[in-house]
Amino acid sequence: MLAMPKPDHQVLSRRGEIVAGLRERVARPDQVIDHVDELRAYETDALTAYRQMPMAVVLPTTTEETSRVLRFCHDQGVKVVARGAGTSLAGGALPLEDAVVIGVSKMNRVLEIDLDNRAAIVQPGVTNIGITQAVEHEGFFYAPDPSSQIACTIAGNVGMNSGGAHCLKYGVTANNLLGIEMVLMNGEVIRLGGRHLDAGGYDILGLMTGSEGMLGVVTEVTVRILHSPEGAKPVLFGFDSNEDAGAAVDAIIGSGIIPVAIEFMDKPAIKVCEAFAHAGYPLDVEALLIVEVEGSKAEIDALLTRIEAIAHDQGAVYVRRAGSTADAAAIWKGRKSAFGAMGRISDYMCMDGTIPTGQLPHVLKRISEICDGYGLGVANIFHAGDGNLHPLILYDVNRPGQLETVEACGADVLKLCVEVGGCLTGEHGVGVEKRDLMPYQFSEIELDQQRRVKSAFDPQWLLNPHKVFPLEDAGAAIEPTRAAAAG
Amino acid sequence: MTDSQLRPTDEAGVVEIVNAARAHSTPLELVGGGSKRTLGRPVQAASTLSLAGLTGITRYKPAELFIAAKAGTPVAEVEAALAEKGQRLPFEPIDYRPLLGTEDTVPTMGGVVACNLSGPARINAGAARDLLIGIRAVNGRGEAIHSGGTVMKNVTGYDLCKIMAGAHGTLGVLTEVTFKVLPQPQSVATLLVFGLGAEEGRDLLSRGLGSPFEVMGAAHLPAAAAARSAVPAVAGAGRSVTALRLEGFAASIAYRREAMRDHLDTDADIEVLDTDTSAVLWREIRDVATLLAPDDRPVWRLSVAPTHGPGVAARITEALPAALLFDWGCGLIWLAPDVPAGSSGAATIRPAVQAVGGHATVIRAGETIRAAEPVFEPQPAPLAALATRIKEAFDPSGLLNPGRMVSGV
User: Fold this and answer.
1) C-alpha span between A473 and A483 (Å, rounded)
2) Residue B200: inside a domain, yes or no?
3) Angle (deg, nearest 10), helices B250-264 and A297-313
4) Does the complex come out with an ipTM higher than 0.85?
5) Do B91 and B168 fall into the same domain?
6) Are B117 and B234 part of one and the same domain?
7) Fold of A346-441
8) How many distinct structural domains can be found in chain B?
């Protein structure tokens, strides 16, 4: 189990006064939640093994309110955790007992669609899919598509630099952001970017993206929107071994084709997804690839014919090109329902390392050995084109000691990802889940450099502290001193 | 400007030099190949730290779509290695040598990152910052650090690659950079549309960019700029040329250029350039110098929302005659104002950009101008203060390229 920081009793003892102060800084009293029954909805995110009831939740409706609330918390020395939809799998939005949660759920309007500049300006609580829904009648879409896109907010996407299945072609959140407005912990409002490209000075927008809500609270977002392709079509391949599937991925990319998505599933994942989604997946293969391309009908047919020839050369034993829209949907449904389908049969911990794609067969073999060693099952789902691996390690939360076992097993898997030249997290973030693993990826000097960046935005470490950095030296009293002394 | 040049051959050597500079409080001017040394404010430093000795491609995995090179590696060396495997740097980095008059220098990969270069493809493929997936650097405390790695999807810790890209060497001495790379297209076509005004050109480009046909370049050359092109179809037009580039497999391009023609639905004359001729035209647009003006006027680079491009240009040229061309769907304006010696035109240009939002950078001007006026877009006080704190987080003693971006920082 991960250790949680000790709450500051001096702050807790002033809770009534702090709640009253928060209420003075928003328009309506019901924007501050302090009743325990209502607070419960905010005590965890999608890393549900961990719960921490916050002191209060504030739901601002404007940038000005957000600024007043942050300024007040800053002056009172109260910690703040910003929250989108709470879909973080890494505990990035996990509250602290002595913190105020700022939720963006009341700032959920699409402010402007600017097709001429191919931009959409939205409030931070708009969902990822909500942006696409706002522009799809014009033929446009917002490209990053994390699995949680129905629920997750754009603010959370900025915080985590969210990806999705289609980033092989379209990039991640950072590549699709044009600008943000954010509020610093001291209440200062900063605008970065806009409808134009690039920064006039330092690329603070780029630094903010993926900073896990530790540097500022996002109050407005300008994203790039794109015209949808004329069409898209997946082809499904089955292979007798993970090695063959891995070689096919390399060969497709090596041929100069960049599909919009290449998804990989291993045998345990295939079985569970097929039982759930009835996608028509072959059950007698060791590995599946879903490869999708885009364009006009003729372009799609030409590309798929080339890709099928390459897969055939690499030993594909099963090929199914989507014959209809319904068939394409079925192929994707199996993959997209993987997490839910797995959840029906077992508790699981979803890992999120990235590895160099050339290491795929080796890493899959090692993952299976590691999980065997802990007596745990594993199913692998993988954004193969970009090396982002999602092993689902199966366990039973009700069995004493199993959570500890699966956490140790997951840590070994992530260390493996770093060992082969990859990283601890591709798109879920470090949050609390992986904070103690950071020393495997970074030296103490490098972590201190990142801490000094945090201090440049938030010298007192009040904004989403105790995330990303190892807990033992992440005490709010320690870091600023440390950074100041080091500086 | 400086009296000693330090030329380490590895990262440990860089660490040693920065530590010595720290001990003696002697700031360093960082130089790669020197091709962009006059970009930014003049640096007052006792010593020059040359990265030209840190060379070589360290890792290149075509199937994994990345290349890593030491900071002093010539861009040409990397491009040649990529071309051999049918790949390229997707962001099409501008070669500033013709514009800055540094033809005898060798641009390096570190410079590509430090100046966050891009080209016409930026509108679709991103800038250097979008494809930069890993760095190694030495900060102003003499510490070697890394960020990112060799994979595209990586959210482990803060993304220091982004903040280093475009920091002009003020946050750290880059020692190695890693980029995502992509295949070169098999075929390229450019649709040229003739005789449109800037606003009509912008609207046409907007239609193209808002189509499903994946535009990889969208530029508008006013008649004067078009006349300077080496491409006969452009130079001989005698009027403005609006250009849309498409890239991909041959069959796909054959289809998309016709589909695009239908989609644009214009009465204006259209001509199509093939792959080789397209390469000539887009190199001219990328490097700007020959199309803009062959003289020594100041040169500005303005980034605004594409819809505002023609209006901003008109507002400036009403007061100040200028040679200009538009890229990025008219969101990028290259401007060479006709001003008296010693002036940059800032008094006219900056307010025009600030009125609509965006940023303006002096790319070429004499040293006196660059020392006396802001080169980069002036920032509101809270943002400027934040940028200063970020500088201090990396370089607390102000050793690295002091004053390059902002006076006193």
Assistant:
1) 12
2) yes
3) 160
4) yes
5) yes
6) no
7) Alpha-Beta Plaits (3.30.70)
8) 3
Pairwise CB contact (< 8 Å): B150 & A356: yes
Q: In chain B, what residues touch A357 (CB-CB under 8 Å)?
A: 63-64
Whether residues B294 and B361 fall in one domain: yes
- State both tokens at A135: 């522009």
Q: Could you say which residues from 3 to 62 on chain B have a Cβ atom under 8 Å away from some Cβ of chain A?
A: 61-62
Q: CA-to-CA distance for B264 and B259, rounded, in angstroms?
A: 9
Q: What are phi and psi of B31, to 5 degrees?
A: -135, 135
The class that CATH gives domain A110-227 is alpha beta
Distance between CA atoms of residues B352 and B356, nearest Å: 7
Is B166 an interface residue toward A (CB < 8 Å)?
A: yes
Q: In this structure, are B56 and B162 located in the same domain?
A: yes
Residue B88 within a domain = yes
Query: Do both B224 and B269 map to the same domain?
Result: yes
Closest chain A residue to B85, measured at CA: A254
Residues B28 and B52 in one domain: yes
Residue B98 has phi, psi (to 5 degrees) of -60, -40
Q: Is any Cβ of chain A less than 8 angstroms from the Cβ of B167?
A: yes
- Residues in chain B closer than 8 A to A227 (CB atoms): 210-212
Which residue of A138, A196, A445 is the best one to mutate when testing the B interface, meaning the one whose CB has the most B CBs within 10 A?
A: A196
Q: Which residues of A fall within a CB distance of 8 Å from B377?
A: 200-201
Q: Which of A88, A118, A197, A228 to mutate to test the interface with B (most CBs of B within 10 A)?
A: A197
User: What tens-digit pLDDT sequence spans chain B (409 residues)?
Assistant: 445 899 999 999 999 999 999 999 999 999 999 999 999 999 989 899 999 999 999 999 999 999 999 999 999 999 999 999 999 999 999 999 999 999 999 999 999 999 999 999 999 999 999 999 999 999 999 999 999 999 989 999 999 999 999 999 999 999 999 999 999 999 999 999 999 999 999 999 999 999 999 999 999 999 999 999 999 999 999 999 999 999 999 999 999 999 999 999 999 999 999 999 999 999 999 999 999 976 789 999 999 999 999 999 999 999 999 999 999 999 999 999 999 999 999 999 999 999 999 999 999 999 999 999 999 999 999 999 999 999 999 999 999 999 999 998 9
**CB of A169 within 8 Å of any CB in chain B?**
no
In a domain, B384, yes or no: no
Residues 221-240 (B) with a CB less than 8 A from some CB of A: none
Overall CATH class of domain A232-340: alpha beta
Tokens representing residue A59 in the block:
């739901």
Q: Which helix (H) or strand (E) holds A120?
A: strand A119-122
* Residue at a domain's end among B166, B183, B200: B183
B99: domain CATH number is 3.30.465.10
Residues of A in contact with B151 (CB under 8 A): 354-356, 386-388, 422-423, 426
Domain span holding position B304: 290-365
User: Quick check: A119 and A222 in contact, CB under 8 A?
Assistant: yes
DSSP string, A122-177: E-TTSBHHHHHHHHGGGTEE-----TTTTT-BHHHHHHHT---TTHHHH--GGGGE
Write the CB contacts of A441 (distance below 8 Å, at least 6 apart in sequence).
A418, A423, A424, B156, B157
Q: Give per-residue pLDDT as tens, A81-94.
A: 999 999 999 999 99
| B220 min Cα distance to partner chain A (Å) | 16
Residue B382 and residue A483: Cβ atoms within 8 Å?
A: no
Single residue among B144, B160, B183 that ends a domain in this structure: B183
Whether residues A211 and B126 touch (CB distance < 8 A) is answered with no
